[in-house]
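Encode chain A's predicted structure.
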Amino acid sequence: MFSAFVGKMNKVIGGLCVFLFMGMLLVAFMQAVLRYLFDFGFSWSGELACYLQIWLVFLGAVLVFERLGHVSINLFVNRLPPFWQRGARLSAQGIIFLFLGLLIYKGFFLVQFSWGMTSIALEAPTSLVYAAVPVCAVFMGVNIVHNVMRQFRDQPSGEGT
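Encoded structure for chain A:
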């Protein structure tokens, strides 16, 4: 049941990433065409493209966590016996999970700090942009929990001893 939830969550996030990328591409292309062909441009387009990119990067990182694609050094871990490999990978996941807890905690302070501020060109609340940090850290944490559960579920019967 949890696996189905995580699968649907990641599918929605993947679709959102496509939508954000297309929006960012459209805004940047529109601005370039307007500037070079008509010598006219919107003041808000660069800011909007930047904000879309921020959300795209953080949501993309969630999908990387789903596939265990974050940076890791496997040279030493792969030389360990299987039991110790699992322990090293679980330890790394635990450290990352603690770091995500820090991101959530500090991210909420960042959102609160920017609550009354608005962006210059869009006049949109800047807290919407800063909310990418804690929101996506929660999603990354869900993916880590799912990966750890999957690692224990897929454990061969004689390995845990």
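The radius of gyration is 20 Å.
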